[in-house]
Amino acid sequence: MLNCEEFFKQCRKEYGDIFSLYLWGQVITFVGKEHNYELFARDDAFDFRGEFKKRVPGDAMFANGFGDGDYNAKAVKEYISDKLGLYTKRMQKCLHSATQKYIGDGDDNGRATIYKIYNVMTKIISTPIADIFVGEEEAVYDDIIITFAEFTADIAIFIAIPPLLDFIYPGLQGYVNRIIVKSGLYNPAKKHQDVLVKHIKNQVEKRLREKQVYGDSWKRPKDLLQDFMEEESFDTKNVDYEAIASKFCTFIFAAIHATSRSCANAIVDLACRPEYMQELYEEQLEIHKQADENGILPFESINEMKKLDSFVRESIRLTGDIAAHPRRVVKDYTFSNGLQVPKDHVVDVNFSDVYQDELLQGPNPESFEPFRHINKNFPASKMSKNFLAFGGDVLEEFLL
Ligand code: HEM
């Protein structure tokens, strides 16, 4: 069990694309490259939110738990992804100022020593995300950045601690976790919720006041908070600050850790391969030179950095996850090869089977080839059958 990757390879060889293991008191089924698209495509049969909610007692910590999955997905698309062009300037400025603040210019040779790169990255990534979530005025406060940066790690304790009690009775660990939070014994979200409520209240009251005073000439702030305030359910006479803070908690949980982890890994991958630095730097200089708009790089030109994109995709591919994206089976399901999994069973994706496959990845799949993905028509942000980092309910990507 000390070499999980090898163990998974052995299981795959002996039992085939789909096999089950008894782990922490329950049987978990691992699905390999031939059938994992069924987990992503059949959201009527496999529910990633259900499994996540069982592990992390969001319902005990927040007013709305981790919210409704369909709403979350829609909000990410409409309020964030579709508006990234609007936020480019602010995000670049924030990234620059945060890099200066948390790393600096380094010594006379431009060298800086970074201790605990993940922790530094969470603060750097939290800065632009806080800016477009709660607004420019609140994102300048250190307590908000700390909440954004540390929230996920504090909550993830519920995932990090092995569910030992499930050996006694399946689900007992989740039940006990909920009691601990509800009884007030330990709630790692509380201090972050309080910080969020304080800043949200500040902004909401200010915006409602100013909107009334300035009327049509009021300049609408552009951020997620304002989007939330314009939803039908928002009641200006009875603002539910706890509920808004809960919504932010879901988005902070989803956004900061995954992004910071990917950036930290990409930086370490680059630091280990200094021979690629110049090439990547020149690509950026070239594109910056062509597209520069008063020091800001337009959103679209980031897509033109093909080498950088491929490097990042390769870094995410080789992040080291062996199995990930657990899902709960919501109704008895028969895979296309005839194997069956019953309702309430947990299935997981066998990542190493996908990432170590020569047909899917090209030659030497185990080695880091930074430009492996150039001209493959899949940017680092896109799921495909050989790249599963973002999960989600997608089928079309697998058909390409
Ligand atoms: C490199 C960065 C990121 C990675 C690798 C990543 C990966 C993931 C994964 C694996 C899931 C679970 C989906 C599944 O298992 O099917 C997820 C869900 C989610 N992600 Fe990301 N993510 C990233 C960045 C972000 C950012 C920046 C945001 C928001 C600004 C975001 C918002 C969400 C939300 C809201 C969900 C949950 C949707 C729901 O409740 O259904 N993610 N992400």
Question: Can you walk me through this structure?
Answer:
It holds the Pfam family p450. GO terms for molecular function: heme binding; iron ion binding; monooxygenase activity; oxidoreductase activity, acting on paired donors, with incorporation or reduction of molecular oxygen. Belongs to the cytochrome P450 family. By secondary structure, the protein is of the alpha+beta class. Helices cover 54% and strands 8% of the residues. It has helices at residues 4-15, 36-41, 48-55, 58-61, 69-80, 84-102, 117-134, 142-155, 157-160, 172-182, 190-214, 224-229, 241-271, 277-291, 299-302, 306-317, 351-355, 358-361, 396-399; strands at 18-23, 26-31, 46-47, 323-329, 333-334, 340-341, 346-350. The chain has a five-stranded mixed β-sheet with strand order 1-2-7-4-3. A hairpin with a 2-residue loop joins β1 (18-23) and β2 (26-31). α8 (142-155) packs across α13 (241-271). It is globular. The relative contact order is 0.15. The model has no long low-confidence stretch (mean pLDDT 92). Protoporphyrin IX containing FE (HEM) binds at residues 48-49, 69, 72-73, 76, 80, 251, 254-255, 258-259, 262, 325, 389-392.
